[in-house]
Write a structure and sequence with these properties.
This protein has helices at 2-32, 34-37, 41-69, 78-111, 113-116, 121-140, 168-201, 205-209, 212-241, and strands spanning 150-153, 158-161. By secondary structure, the protein is mainly alpha-helical.
């Protein structure tokens, strides 16, 4: 049993390292290639996604590893469970909104290029990220404010909002989170579908007159975004359904 727990602990440590290092590498690539992308809105959003996801992993995974390192003898106190619940909820909901913002950015850039390429779009992107983080914080604070509660899930190494509770407040909080999440996901999928159809058909005049390099860049970004949306959707949707 001790050997089995040791292997599990190593896997958790590896997941933690890969999650943090992967997001750090993404930020390094963004910074070193800043001369080419010039921190356009889409790349600012990618940086925000890496900061949100990497920061969430960095802040919550040590609590997970403590549970495994103590041979499952350490039980989360309520304050630590609330903390874990907040970080998990904030990271997931904020990451989803940033992915949605990335999809909206491509939607506007490809279908409405003249409106999109107005002055101050970088500033608007920065404000969008701040608003996303504020909304993510507000939704994640609901259990801390008494609307619902946090719950320690099997195998006792992580806490999340109490979607298995039967109280009215727990049910309301669960529905707020899941319906908001589904709205984000449906919006993201719709925007991406429209963008993909537009790029494939070449109906937009800007795409017809674009250079070959611009076309390749648009296709690359759409594929990159589609992969992120697919992975995020497949991993997150079952939790919201539950």
């Amino acid at each position: 049993r001790s050997r089995g727990l040791g292997d599990v602990y190593k896997r958790q440590a590896l997941q933690f390292a890969l999650g943090v290092i992967g997001n750090i590498l993404a930020l390094v690539v963004l910074v070193t290639s800043a001369k080419s992308h010039k921190w356009k809105p889409f790349y600012r959003l990618v940086g925000g996604l890496a900061l949100t996801d990497g920061g969430g992993i960095l802040l919550v995974y040590p609590t997970v590893m403590v549970r495994y390192a103590t041979d499952f003898t350490y039980d989360f106190p309520k304050i630590l469970c609330n903390y874990s619940c907040f970080i998990y909820t904030f990271t997931l909901i904020s990451s989803a909104m940033i992915v949605c913002a990335m999809s909206l950015d491509r939607f506007l850039a490809i279908l409405y290029p003249f409106r999109y390429n107005t002055a101050g779009k970088e500033r608007r992107t920065n404000i969008t990220l701040i608003v996303i983080w504020i909304i993510g914080t507000a939704i994640s604070c609901l259990p801390l404010l008494g609307l619902g509660s946090s719950f320690n899930y099997y195998p006792g190494s992580w806490c999340f909002l109490n979607f298995v509770g039967t109280s009215t407040l727990d049910r309301i909080n669960s529905y707020i989170y899941s319906l908001f999440g589904f709205a984000i996901l449906i919006t993201t999928l719709t925007l991406n579908f429209i963008v993909i159809v537009t790029v494939c058909r070449g109906m937009n005049s800007d795409i017809k007159l674009a250079t070959k390099r611009r076309k390749k860049n648009d296709v690359f970004i759409v594929i990159f975004l589609l992969i992120i949306v697919s992975v995020f959707g497949f991993c997150w949707t079952p939790l919201m359904v539950r």
